[in-house]
## 1
Amino acid sequence: MSFRALERAGVERAADTAVTMVEALQQALDDALERDPQVLLLGEDIGRNGGVFRVTDGLQLRHGAQRVLDMPIAEAGTVGLAVGLCLAGYRPVVEIQFDSFSYPALEQIATHVARYRWRTNGAVAMRMVIRLPFGGGVRAPELHSDSPEALFCHLPGLRVLCPSTPADAFELLGWAIASDDPVIFMEPKRLYRGTRMPLPGAQPGEGPPGARIVCSGTDVTLVSYGASVPTCAAAAEALAAEGISIELVDLRSLWPLDSETVLDSVRRTHRCLIVHEAPQSCGVGAELAALVGEHALHDLHAPPLRVVGPDAPFPLFALEDDYLPSAERVATAARRLVGF
Amino acid sequence: MSFRALERAGVERAADTAVTMVEALQQALDDALERDPQVLLLGEDIGRNGGVFRVTDGLQLRHGAQRVLDMPIAEAGTVGLAVGLCLAGYRPVVEIQFDSFSYPALEQIATHVARYRWRTNGAVAMRMVIRLPFGGGVRAPELHSDSPEALFCHLPGLRVLCPSTPADAFELLGWAIASDDPVIFMEPKRLYRGTRMPLPGAQPGEGPPGARIVCSGTDVTLVSYGASVPTCAAAAEALAAEGISIELVDLRSLWPLDSETVLDSVRRTHRCLIVHEAPQSCGVGAELAALVGEHALHDLHAPPLRVVGPDAPFPLFALEDDYLPSAERVATAARRLVGF
Amino acid sequence: MIDVTAEAAPEAAASERVAAAADDDLLLLRQMLLLRAYDERAVTLQRQGRLSAYPMFWGEEGIQAGALAAVRESDWLFPTYRQNALPVLRGAPPEQVLSYFNGDPRGLLDPRRYACAPQCVPVATQIPHAVGWAWGRANAGSDDVAVVFFGDGATSEGDFHEGVNLAGVLRAPVVLLCTNNGWAISTPVARQTAAKAIVDKAAGYGIVGVQVDGFDARAVRDVVAVAAERARAGAGPTLVEATCYRIGPHATADDPARYRDPAVAETWRAHEPVARLADSLLARGLLTEDELELERANAHARMVEASERLAAQGPVDRRRLIEHVHVEPPPLLEAQLGGRTA
Amino acid sequence: MIDVTAEAAPEAAASERVAAAADDDLLLLRQMLLLRAYDERAVTLQRQGRLSAYPMFWGEEGIQAGALAAVRESDWLFPTYRQNALPVLRGAPPEQVLSYFNGDPRGLLDPRRYACAPQCVPVATQIPHAVGWAWGRANAGSDDVAVVFFGDGATSEGDFHEGVNLAGVLRAPVVLLCTNNGWAISTPVARQTAAKAIVDKAAGYGIVGVQVDGFDARAVRDVVAVAAERARAGAGPTLVEATCYRIGPHATADDPARYRDPAVAETWRAHEPVARLADSLLARGLLTEDELELERANAHARMVEASERLAAQGPVDRRRLIEHVHVEPPPLLEAQLGGRTA
Ligand SMILES: Cc1ncc(C[n+]2csc(CCOP(=O)(O)OP(=O)(O)O)c2C)c(N)n1
Ligand SMILES: Cc1ncc(C[n+]2csc(CCOP(=O)(O)OP(=O)(O)O)c2C)c(N)n1
Ligand SMILES: [Mg+2]
Ligand SMILES: [Mg+2]
């Protein structure tokens, strides 16, 4: 809010104003609402309350209650309503309050959001973004720390994006809102307020977002996304001190995967380690490991490994640090890889 | 019905009465209702109508409307009701009419069925089976041919089973109903009436079901489940004629995976091909390929390959044969593997 | 039989209105005859193995044509499988709609062309769509309204509830039209809800509810017209319960004898809406037996021609597997179409 | 203050009933004072950083204790986070329940021990559970009933609808108790539904609905008692709407000043149920100021002791990550606990 107030004055964003991910997302939403009258925001408590994470803080005041709509507690109904809004030409952006509360909307997402374009031979696009704060590490109550992204990667017809920095959050959300495909936008809530950085220019990028090489390296390709990216960066730093050189790839797009970037890196480092919070079985890491095995088998000097969540419910938070991949676990696995 | 009528007379099942999968499932349900007064069946149109696939044909008549309950069209409510029935000591078996109609129940499944035991420190078991006719190949209407099994493999707290023969259907369903863990029971509707075989003895097996080696071979391990198993068997036969020896593994349990059996086979054949209808990304095949890459990398003479559904909605049925893995596609991929 | 200009003779205003009303009824009958011909033809085609499973609507023509007659061409319709022929009433080629039941993607229509959403398969999920569309159009300054169709069974689903509740909260201009035909496959409505009537649910959403005889096409038209005009005027949604009876099976694969007395269903045949409207027009002298026969023959002929065009449709392009899923198929889908994984 | 044997003196039957009623009220007050002490203590602990987010229920003690007083020990309760202290009223150690808000799995109770389901986090999803339990028990010949708690916001969810509808269809012995405190986080009930009252939803499910002043603990008790006895007698479910006002924030992290006038919330403080019941008992001479003070001090002391025991809890065993997910952890989970993938 205060950040935005600062910005309202000038057209150009001061390149040196460092913002959090929450502020970056807010800016992207504000810009979209400003730019395109068809953009609407829908969600529980997103109006005067600004959302439980304050991402939409001040946006209802600025753009009106007809564009920033507080919704009853009805996730399926809200997503279904957004489908109808797409039919009427709008670009709705839905905020689901927490990860697990996307489950009640799964039928609408799987059968309509993901298939309406297909069902109408391309006549009607689902220009919809579903924003989903996800993941653990914030001492949240039960069922407020799930990582369901793989479900949306498996259901055909959606794009799934996930930023790990304020700048990426801004860019990717801008791209998602402008996209004519439906996008599930995974927001790593653990990173909402941790880091600050200046925002890039106001224009969303051109083509669909690909992976980003966070740091180049020669020994192991570390692939991750969301809140595990800083964990991996910490591990990379520790390993550098031991002389192990890590190439860290931030996927940013979970469906489709930028397999080119990953494979290209693995072909150079000959080793691949995949890190995420979500449970192992049929997760994004499984798809990545499968792709690496299929397309880079003969380049591998060691098996592709995964440091991921166990196939168990996200625990009550007293144990969450034991559930989440730690820099230490990542580093240990990387050492194992180079030791092969 | 007629099959069951035949059987009612004697206690021992005539070992030579060959039955379809529908009849095998019916028999397993009938036996369970007979054996355990806590077993209840719930579902849409399962009473007098016997279910849209007739799996529950005659069961309401035989066991009463208090044990075989016709439900309103409310999948979430029905699964939620079954959670309450578990709390009251019952063993509910829920029939969801078709694959996609499990989506509205996903929240109840993910947050309650899968976590209630965990949430009560083991005090309350979810002794529930959710039967889910799934998959394509029967010229069914839109949204009646999905293969959502990977969603349930990814959500922690469930077991996922899938038979490919009448005998396995009988055994696995018997096991599932007797299990104290919640089981998602995937029924490959394409195989409902295709083959007949005699049933095994009435007692469900002891430990949790593992994979089954359908036929032994030396050149390629072919791993599959459900309706793709006969497809793979056809491919194996064709390949045998060319001198390529296939070991076909029917997973039967999709979570947990019997990775021992698969890895053991791959270590002998050095090649692995995975086949299923469900979309590729984050599917069961991804997890399997990842496991093979991680645990048998140095035994592999060729990359683990997948012949699976594309990441696209299951098509209207005019194109379903192009969507489904065919014996020809499987054989081609196997030839590629031995050609490496 | 229907010649509006010829009828508009220089008479008193009142009699002009009577004449116009008679014309409306004749047009309504014509639409119902088309629906009847379509439905019977589809069943025949299915029996011949030329269509897969087909959900017939024999007896519900009055609700469908009645509702359609009550709204404007720009008002959107949100049907289920049971109202699959609605686009035909708005000019869609019958063979195109029928080819959907052949699993042919060319049976998927452009919703904008006929102001009609795709027939919805997952029960009740179309209700929030209609509410969103209706609110969205109103918010954009239009006075178009939406009519969403659903069955008695659909009222048990969460999406019915969430959708109707949202309609109430947002005062969306939508007519929520429940066809209470007494059955959801084998499940009688008494097993669906303990409510005495579906319309009793309206108060729980703070909206107006009206019950109407679904076998009386004119009554349905009049009730929906009032509801649509209320919506257009900004007075919010109406829940309309059109009561009838599902005289036929649920769909071609269904065998009602397994779960209900065929004799009871037969007694309902006498109420069916097409004969009812025709008889009334005949009795009032607004239609002759010959004219009726001609209308019937025309509708039938149209469907015979449509069946021929249906038979002439060529094979479906395999590329359709991956097309229209996204704006453009991502490289992964192109690879998968070629049998590769990435 | 409460000594049932001492009060049961040899008097007329009528005056015995009066005395018994007075005892009931005193017991009710005692339970409410315990809830109040628990709730205030929890907020303090949260401020001290000794608990994470906590959803307080200040002002809703009358609904919770009232409902509990209306049913038997064997009747099951199905609470949300807002009724998290219900097990304490049935003897659960307060520190155990509080440790849930510390993310400690030892805060997860055995539902059978206190005839109380786990506090439910996903809004409205507990409603079908209660219906299933209730129908299941009745089906097994028991006359136990279920009481399920939910908020005004929960009535917008599909699971509310499906659950209540099922209760109607199955005539399940369940009391559906809606705490209409006017707010769901920042959302006022008028934005939740256009219905004039939550109780207006009952007719749509063919069930009985009753509204009661949720600040009047005795009224809640009496209404729930009637509903529970109806259920027990096989007359089916009742929807009870207990109206009140959420005087506090939604939870410790919530700042109501962002979305509502704090002055309005303040005016509701005068209605709060603990003082209201105490005042009435004082006025009727059934309680003295000293006794009241003593009761308050006892409740407070109990919570101080509980906080100490809370602080003394040791660390959680890491194995709990994989335990109790299945009957026995499959080998995969054991491997994952060891940091491996299979
Ligand atoms: C979510 C979902 N569950 C189940 C089904 C299977 N199904 C198809 S039609 C139908 C009955 C619908 O009854 P009703 O709403 O009364 O409409 P009618 O068929 O009578 O027109 C059912 C259960 C479905 N299509 N969608
Ligand atoms: C399915 C789901 N959606 C959203 C939430 C987030 N949430 C937690 S409490 C709450 C408000 C509930 O309001 P109400 O039912 O009135 O109960 P109260 O909090 O007033 O007791 C919301 C939206 C949730 N827990 N579950
Ligand atoms: Mg019906
Ligand atoms: Mg509330």
Note: Residues 1-6, 8-12 of chain A have pLDDT under 50 and may be disordered.
## 2
Amino acid sequence: MKECVFAGFGGQGVLTVGLLISQMATYKDYHATWIPQYGSAMRGGTANCTVKFGEGYIYNPSQDEPDILLAMNNPSLVKFLPLVKPGGTIVVNSDLVDSEINTRKDINLVEIPCLTLAKEMDHPRGANVIMAGAIVKLSGDFTEREAIDGMNDMFRKKGKEKYKELNTKALSIGYNYI
Amino acid sequence: MKECVFAGFGGQGVLTVGLLISQMATYKDYHATWIPQYGSAMRGGTANCTVKFGEGYIYNPSQDEPDILLAMNNPSLVKFLPLVKPGGTIVVNSDLVDSEINTRKDINLVEIPCLTLAKEMDHPRGANVIMAGAIVKLSGDFTEREAIDGMNDMFRKKGKEKYKELNTKALSIGYNYI
Amino acid sequence: MSKSKKVPYLVDRPMSFCPGCGHGIAIRLVAECLEELGQADNIVFPIGVGCSSLLGGGIEADRLHCSHGRAGAVATAIKRCNPNNVVISYQGDGDAYSIGIGETTSAAYRNERFTTIIINNTNYGMTGGQMSNTTLPNQKTNTSVYGRDCSVTGNPIRFPELAADQFNVGYAARGSVHDVPNIRKTKSYIKKAIEMQLSGEGYSVVEVLSPCPTNWKMEPLEAMKHIAEHVTTYFPLGEFVEKEEK
Amino acid sequence: MSKSKKVPYLVDRPMSFCPGCGHGIAIRLVAECLEELGQADNIVFPIGVGCSSLLGGGIEADRLHCSHGRAGAVATAIKRCNPNNVVISYQGDGDAYSIGIGETTSAAYRNERFTTIIINNTNYGMTGGQMSNTTLPNQKTNTSVYGRDCSVTGNPIRFPELAADQFNVGYAARGSVHDVPNIRKTKSYIKKAIEMQLSGEGYSVVEVLSPCPTNWKMEPLEAMKHIAEHVTTYFPLGEFVEKEEK
Amino acid sequence: MPKVMTKPERCKQCGLCVDACPKQAISFGDGINAGGYNYTVIDESKCIACGMCYTICPDGVFEVLGEK
Amino acid sequence: MPKVMTKPERCKQCGLCVDACPKQAISFGDGINAGGYNYTVIDESKCIACGMCYTICPDGVFEVLGEK
Amino acid sequence: MADMMKGNVAIAEAAIRAGARLYAGYPITPSTEIMEYMSWRMAEVDGVFVQAESEIAGINMIIGGAACGVRAITASSGPGISLKQEGMTTLSDEELPAVVVNMVRYGNGIGTLYSAQCDYHRETRGGGNGDYRCIVLCPSSVQEATELMVLAFDLAEKYRMVSVFMSEGALGQMMEPCELPEMRELPRYPWGFDGKYTNKKVGIFDRNSRDEAVLLNEKYNAVKENEQRWESIDVEDADYVLVAYGLPGRASIGAAKELRAEGYKVGMIRVITAWPFPEKAFQEVNPNVKGFITIEANATGQLIDDVALTALRTIDKKVQCYCRPHVYGIPSVKAIKQDFIDVVNGNMKEVY
Amino acid sequence: MADMMKGNVAIAEAAIRAGARLYAGYPITPSTEIMEYMSWRMAEVDGVFVQAESEIAGINMIIGGAACGVRAITASSGPGISLKQEGMTTLSDEELPAVVVNMVRYGNGIGTLYSAQCDYHRETRGGGNGDYRCIVLCPSSVQEATELMVLAFDLAEKYRMVSVFMSEGALGQMMEPCELPEMRELPRYPWGFDGKYTNKKVGIFDRNSRDEAVLLNEKYNAVKENEQRWESIDVEDADYVLVAYGLPGRASIGAAKELRAEGYKVGMIRVITAWPFPEKAFQEVNPNVKGFITIEANATGQLIDDVALTALRTIDKKVQCYCRPHVYGIPSVKAIKQDFIDVVNGNMKEVY
Ligand SMILES: Cc1ncc(C[n+]2csc(CCOP(=O)(O)OP(=O)(O)O)c2C)c(N)n1
Ligand SMILES: Cc1ncc(C[n+]2csc(CCOP(=O)(O)OP(=O)(O)O)c2C)c(N)n1
Ligand code: SF4
Ligand code: SF4
Ligand code: SF4
Ligand code: SF4
Ligand code: SF4
Ligand code: SF4
Ligand SMILES: [Mg+2]
Ligand SMILES: [Mg+2]
């Protein structure tokens, strides 16, 4: 079972990244849970969610000890850094996050300039999908194909197919950035 | 311990008779409880209360098995007749109550034309006090003096002294009617 | 010779109100209107808590004893679920204007398509005569023993006026049952209110000034006179709004 | 050169409202008025549930987080127990006009001597943007996804008008914070309301039209423009009653 | 044929009908009903079947047998 | 002496002051505060200490140092 | 010689003498006389009386007054108390002391006017959201009612909790001789609002729930340790112990005494604080007791759970617990004796 | 392959498919999405949606709809459910079926938004006046939530009772793969109002309380007998049995399995019907069990009472009952295992 935490400012699409990963897992017939932090804390502008997936039943869907942390901004890194499992992976949005904040030696820090990458590919709202691609790769649980199919399946069901190509590309960029 | 039930139409002053007897008992340092039937049944026009008094503590203040029943109208006699303790006493307002209703042989039925008596003494609202006098005598627990003092003490405290003489007379009439 | 008059079967049974209580007249008027409009077998009554509760055994029709003050909400749902039934909430002034002021105004606000009849006897009758939001200035009740002091308790509320002025309701009126002409006029108001409901145009409310001889500590006739002489001076009779039917 | 302007200490700390939210302006106006009237250390705030709740850490003064909608009742008791304190209930439109409609109208009805400030942002902001009793016709919210249908949900309620017309209140007005002139005018209303309370003459209420950029899904400036162009057409600005001081 | 029929068991002796009858045709008789009330009786000779008693009675005592 | 003092840590980048300033004296700088917002900066040379920014700002960012 | 006094009047006057200076409420039978009395009496002591538009407004006025440091009280019954649940949990959460009188009437929903004990579970566990507890005081006579009213205010103040004064409707309606408590002249609670933010601990919004949970449990444990009240007779050697409260409790004492006199080894615990439940009373019970029997005036039996749970904590072995719910009213001494006989004869099945 | 679905959305859609045709309520986090979903979805199935002015109006609208024979549902949380207590006892009294969803959030009073289990006592015993009970269903996954929603309507209908759907706030917010139940096309309940007084048993006012009390107990006994639901593992030979419900129950199963794997003789009962409490689950427990341990997300421990009472009825000897309230949130599998170790090591005192 893998546990991932996705955290950032409200507008950075972290809840969607989480949902994407969970949907990919479901698409692969894994068990999966997605759970957001909710409530008036939203107003502070930060958002995060926890996704767990794997072959076995997920007994505790809530945040516990993440294997993977996505930190899209500094406050998120500060907040979740202590929770990450020893040996775990932290993916940071290096366009915004100051990696100096990281004080842990027992984790694997991956820096991805997702805003830059998104700008480059002319899909500025795709930064989160790029990160999803990276995480898919880092998790080792999905092939690129599986990830893309899972994602497109989800967007299609939500009636959001129009960005299909752009999103596919963004995911690949993230996947292959690793 | 004695248990008395006082019952009649709303306007017949039965709650006051009950209170009178209980206050006389208190005046004599007896334990005493007074408990009315309350609630929207009032609208039917009937009222009743239960008074218990005696030297010992009263464990159950509520209606149980009355030693004495005052029935100021027919419905009251019908309702409470079956409850009266074998050997108990029923005092009826014979101006209104049809004694034929009584089917019990094991009780002592006392008929008092209290409305007539009250009219005769020119104190039409004193019918209930007359009945109180009769019940005092029948109970055997108070002397005429004790009863009068207890009653007057109560009316005085309630600021209703103006009928003192009439009420004293009414009580005596009832007391001596027995 | 005038027309024959028979108590409609909806309410043709003994009522347990006090002698001379106006509730008995008011509910009969409602029944007469329903009968005349052919709706006597198409009626649901959400009934308030108060002496209205005594109607439990008084009317033979679909009826629900609502929690105190909540008939406005209950009626909302009944009418929305059963739009083809005539729905009439029958409530007292305490029920509708004190504890139920939220539900009563909200139903009027939403312009729910049912009818509310409010028996205004200027006090909480059922509980033995306490001040209500329609108690007259200086009126003595068990919670205004020296007479109602409006400077701290407010002036009597005039709900039909409020509904007519502030909300988009269909019909609002105030009648009285203190004498035969007023009883007849009140009946015409109730009828219009039900007709408004039948037309589907909107919320309708009729407040009925009604005597509570028991708690007013008056003889029934005296109570009727009291309405004519005093109660109506605070609570003007008449119609306050009548929407055009489309 | 104009007068110096400094945020009153009562509210001189970070607020946790969303960017461009009108709550921050409104509460500052209240604090300014209190300061100018010499009442900044003589104030108790019963605060409603809603984005008003975010004031918990925002103001340094006696303040009580009331249950949703009940600030009108809480304020009644506070003012009666502490008649020499200025008591201001600070509530949202949902709090004051939906769940709290009973308490709000009852306080106005009794003419309680406190002041109510109601932030009307035409929706339930705190819970993420549902329809409220002030949602504009056709406005889309999370519970009116196709736009508000007034034929079944009612027309936006106008409470200051209702209080002014139906009850014997001291002062009722509606302001807006959508631009500087209106902010200044709104401040003058709030000041008059507090003065009314100080005079002991009666209940005072100021409704403040306020943007909720987050749930309106608008940029802050756009939200301000929306108030000017649309919200004020349903909610006229101005004073509706101002009792003569004795 | 009587002009007015009554259900005396319902009468609560409030007196409203006695007052309302334009012909003074209603009075309290000697009878007492189960509720303990002196119920009303009608003097048919005076009655004009106007229906006032029906209209004012809160307890549904009257039925007026006028035109259908 | 500056005419306006600011508390940049409170700014939420709503832009209301930028719009309200009659002299276009306010703009967003490059700095980012702890909340993640680009906060406002004032061009003192343009500012006339009119106080509009103080009045419109929902977050108490401004203090205008006009006449006392 | 004390005068006959109506329960509700004695309760109201005792509250005044205990220092109550705010009454806000809405009438409901059989509690209304308390409000009616307060409507004129409060002014005489310079207190505040508000006839609220509803029970909800009433309890929220109590919140407002209590936050100002005023001793505040409201009374109701049946559905009226149900409407106060949100306010009662809010009082508890804000640690505002207050007294809520429930003159219990029988029935679910709109209910009836009969005197009963059907709200035991709710009052002892809280019908509002969350984990709060209220002190629950149950008088069995008019005299005791006046004394418990003073205690209700004192405990509410000491622990900054709500005291629920839970009595059967009949106690409010009945009259008994009664000596009223002394009139106290008390200042307001020192920590109330004064408009100057002198006291920073009332009405604060942001709090740490985990820390508070610890404090909450500590407070409740202190109340459990210190504030149990009961009356018991003959429990040390009893084969069976009757357990009851209020007027049925009073009748049960009578029954227990008569049964003793008839040779049965019967004891009786009359619960005075339904919360904290008088565990200490059970510690005195014969360790070889054969059974506990609750006498209740409700439909389903409610006290029985606390009795079974408390027996579990205090008696080393499993003890049978029986329950005889009498629905409403006050069971007669005779009826209670019969309940006991039914148990002894095996005609009543144990609940636990 | 099922899609990820948000708990509240799944709950709302399941209710529609189970036949719900009236929703009336007032928003409150973390239940609001149910209402938002219903606001547009109800119209699609020709049902009625009313945004009520308050929770009180909401529950009273449910009463009105249910009286018309319509399957009715409302949802709320925290103080919002407190406000519904009068309505819920009224529904119970009138024997009107309805479903009330409580997406439980932590705290007394206004409370917090944290997911919790602090309303257990209230939901299982009723926070309104009187002796009523509601069926209380507690899901532990989004999938189970949809299934229990159908059951909630079916049981409400079968017994003419209120079904309380009690879930932690987190379950409403989380997403999981979920297969929705089939859409059912059900007629209205046959006994509702039709304006013709066809059915004389709805809404009658005057009733005999003593007779009703007997019927009430009979009905509740039937529910207790027939409707217990639970999931349990490894209880037959367990030295210790964990007891929990909802999401903490789900986590406790994980903990029990891991402990078993580590060699501890641990069993687990996950309560699905908090009322009727699954006594039958306890009948299967090892008669020599050493202790029960409840895992709860509240401040004071609430489930523990029912566990102790049920152990008393089902296990022949006194068994220790332990309780570890985790205040709010979902305790992690690790934390629960630690709770168990604390018990075994004597570091946790028993409650009973
Ligand atoms: C929730 C609740 N609160 C209080 C009561 C008690 N109560 C019953 S009727 C009533 C007042 C009724 O007054 P009104 O509505 O004016 O009706 P009336 O009896 O005067 O016709 C009250 C307060 C109740 N039954 N339920
Ligand atoms: C009894 C209760 N019901 C519902 C809620 C949930 N709730 C919190 S704030 C709110 C609406 C607030 O809207 P409004 O009063 O307009 O304030 P705003 O946030 O828009 O400023 C609701 C429904 C609650 N906290 N308590
Ligand atoms: S108390 Fe008043 S309103 Fe109620 S039945 Fe009697 S007279 Fe009528
Ligand atoms: S949600 Fe709306 S009202 Fe609430 S803080 Fe944000 S902008 Fe302001
Ligand atoms: S019908 Fe007219 S005349 Fe005849 S008794 Fe009745 S009121 Fe009198
Ligand atoms: S009006 Fe009716 S109840 Fe009253 S006296 Fe006449 S017949 Fe009797
Ligand atoms: S004081 Fe006036 S000119 Fe200066 S920055 Fe502010 S708004 Fe602009
Ligand atoms: S108005 Fe205030 S918060 Fe908004 S941008 Fe300007 S300084 Fe920042
Ligand atoms: Mg009334
Ligand atoms: Mg709002």
Note: The first helix of chain D runs from residue 23 to 36.
